[in-house]
Each structure stands twice: as C-alpha cells, then as structure tokens.
C-alpha cells in the first residue's frame, strides 16, 4: 500500500470513528498509535479496532451525557 493510499485509509478510519464516537477527539500520532481524548479520558493503542472496542467500553460504562 502506498503512502497516499495509507493516508486515505487512515482518513476514512478517522471519519468513521469521529461519526461513531461524538464528543471524542480522535487521531493517529507519529508513532503510529491511534488515540482518543474526551475530558480527562485518554485511550491510546496501536490498533484501530482495539481503539473502537475500548471506546465502546467507555460508552457502556459512562454515557456521553454525563461526560
């Protein structure tokens, strides 16, 4: 996969995650780790699907209305 394809794929993932998890700031760092921040909550992982799972766990434990 070329650099442009990788960037486009990451951009698509960011868009999906941002739409699914409103209220979170989501990105991918230079180290390749995906991260999400909301208030004092931080999730950081090298795998985008693990990030999605962990954010769903946050959503089930602490509804966004309480954040």
Automatic annotation (TrEMBL):
Record organism: Actinomadura sediminis
Protein name, as recorded: Uncharacterized protein
Superkingdom field: Bacteria
């Amino acid at each position: 996969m070329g650099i442009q394809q990788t960037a486009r794929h990451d951009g698509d993932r960011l868009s999906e995650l941002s739409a699914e998890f409103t209220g979170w700031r989501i990105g991918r760092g230079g180290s390749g780790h995906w991260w999400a921040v909301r208030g004092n909550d931080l999730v950081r992982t090298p795998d985008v699907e693990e990030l999605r799972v962990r954010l769903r766990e946050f959503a089930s434990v602490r509804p966004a209305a309480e954040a």
